[in-house]
Amino acid sequence: IHLIKDKDAIDDYLAKNIKGVSKQEAAAYRNSYKKNICIDMLRQGYHKSFSELLTLIQKWNAFREAAGPGSAIWHEKSLEEQPDKLDQLYHFLTGAEAAQRAGHYEKVYDNQLSLACSFSDPEDKWLRDYFYEQSYNTAQLVEIDGGKRKAQASVDMGLIQEERGHIMKAAELFEAFYRLTEGTAWKDKTGHTYTSLACHHLWRIYTLLADKMLENEEHQEAIKTLIKALKMAQEGGDIKMHGEAAYCLSLAYHFSGDHETALAVLITSLKSSHSFVILVAWAEHMQL
Questions:
Q1: Residue 180 and residue 158: Cα distance in Å, rounded?
Q2: CB 220 within 8 A of CB 256
Q3: How far apart (Å, rounded) are the C-alpha atoms in residues 36 and 240?
Q4: Checking phi first, is residue 71 left (phi over 0); if not, alpha (psi -120 to 50) or beta?
Q5: Exposure of 117 by Cβ count < 10 A (0-12 exposed, 13-18 middle, 19+ buried)?
Q6: Which residues pair with 193 in a beta bridge?
Q7: Angle, nearest 10°, between helix axes 47-67 and 125-139?
Q8: Tell me: the pLDDT tens digits for 182-237?
């Protein structure tokens, strides 16, 4: 028995001895799924996609090594061992590269966003964030949609920054989202207008910023920020959000020692929102 060690010899042998199998198909049986995808990318001239795929695989391996034995990621399959994810990467990376060659940046963005949305498992968060960042950068190059993709990319990145605890960066991105959506009729899949979503995000992020300021006893800065939060809540048209914003602002005035203004803010809000639940909460806090 002669062992066939050379890979080309193996491919030739399979092609000659298995009816209907070409040398290329024989190589596909021999190679790993990742290797076949990489070879296909290179054969079709998708060098950028090939490089990006390898970089992502290396990054995953680096995360695993850094986490070490006993970590959750250590027991997970590597990216190159997950054919479904490799298929997604192959399809959308090459789609993005083809669109980039043609100068269709809106399609580059769409492919990158599709990849971000494809990775919904908790262990794939780093991949999801990576492609949201890529799509954000690409969105800045899109000129044909009136800024809609820039707006979507801004809110996506804002949520990522908020999740990372970068509240100021998140606020800047949500403010950009608000500016880009102001006066538009754009809606998300649930039917909410982009403008109302922008107001909701800004109300929330301004409230978070003000909380930090109050912790540091920066009362006047907190009040200024909560006034902006109240404005967003009013514009957003959500009565509950409006009531909560007024409640937080009244508390900030109370903590600063301005009890009269605290009560005035609350009463004004109650007249416009009819949210008596907020009055009860405020009264309990003040122990009235």
A1: 14
A2: yes
A3: 55
A4: beta
A5: middle
A6: 187
A7: 140
A8: 999 999 989 999 999 999 999 999 999 999 999 999 999 999 999 999 999 999 98
Question: Can you tell me which residue has the tokens 């794939």?
Answer: 124
What single-letter amino acid sits at 147? G
- In the numeric block, the tokens 């994810």 are attached to 85
| pTM more than 0.90 | no
Return the structure tokens found at 137.
């950068």
For residue 197 the two structure tokens come to 């979503």
Coil vs helix vs strand at 238: coil
For 69, 74, 119, 152, the CA distances from 77, given in Å and listed in that order, are: 14, 8, 15, 32
Q: Cα torsion for 87, 49, 96, 111, to the nearest 10°?
A: 40
Dihedral angle computed from the Cα positions of residues 32, 35, 39 and 42, in that order, rounded to the nearest 10 degrees: 160
Distance CA 174, CA 122 (A): 24
Rounded distance between C-alpha atoms, residue 100 and residue 171, angstroms: 30
| pLDDT for 3 | 40
CA–CA dist 63, 126 (Å, integer): 10
Would you state the pLDDT for residue 288? 44
Residues 123-152: b if buried by 16+ CB within 10 A, e if exposed? ebeebbbbbbbbbbebbeebeeeebbbbbb
CB contact at 8 A, 247 and 202: no
Contact status, residue 127 vs residue 154, Cβ threshold 8 Å: no
Which residues, 6 or more positions from 35, have their beta carbon under 8 angstroms from its beta carbon? none
d(CA 193, CA 197): 6
